[in-house]
Protein: Lipoprotein-releasing system ATP-binding protein LolD
Amino acid sequence: MLVVENLGKSYESIGQPLRVLEDLSLTLQPGQSAAIVGPSGSGKTTLLQILGALDTPDQGRVRINDTDPFDLDQKQRAIFRNQTIGFVFQDHHLLPQLSVIENVLIPALAVGAATDAHAERAQSLIEAVGLKDRSTHLPGELSGGERERVAIARALLMRPTLILADEPTGNLDAKTAAGITDVLLRLQADENAVLVTVTHSETLADAMQTQFELAQGRLVERAAA
Ligand SMILES: Nc1ncnc2c1ncn2[C@@H]1O[C@H](COP(=O)(O)OP(=O)(O)OP(=O)(O)O)[C@@H](O)[C@H]1O
Structure:
């Protein structure tokens, strides 16, 4: 479960500080999916970075399964992030010199060694995202949509309770984007995880259970279509 209370965030800029998030609150239950939409510069990525404990808020609290990552020291926070949060980025951030399966195993390697159980999980996720025959390929040998599937498999390796996706279908054609959306939602449902996706795509936003517009630093729930 994700609970965000009264979040505030400003950036220092020449002259006045830039207030990006203002008294922002949000609660999502396990299994819930939400899209965050809003104009460019409205603070969507900033919010996602704070939800992922990659950036710190100036005010407010974030609780993920009753833990506030900002109560933890840096090392504990990194471990918590690794075990609780899965990130899917638009530009997928795969390591080009590592194979598909090695990329999927990165979260396990980051906290020690990949066990046989991790390797089995990685293989089953690679199958689940439709890349069974590609596990020894390098990212450079894959299409953009296939690379995004690898990024999704990697995000799911540690069975996160919170999945954060930043424009996961950003540079993809409509058919490929629809396939990526299906895979993401299927794996999220399998794990009963919370999914928060930031997007400019109305199609992707419509695939989520709930949609929020980020405006003037706060989230406003959009009425169901
Ligand atoms: N590190 C930073 N320092 C100063 N200002 C920043 C920083 N990061 C973001 N900003 C500013 O904060 C505002 C919100 O940025 P953010 O990237 O969160 O918006 P966004 O809604 O994700 O935009 P987009 O849809 O274009 O990706 C913008 O005005 C941006 O210029």
About this structure: Residues 174-191 form the longest helix (18 residues). The two ends are 25 Å apart (CA to CA). Residues 2-205+216-221 form a domain with the Rossmann fold fold (CATH 3.40.50.300).
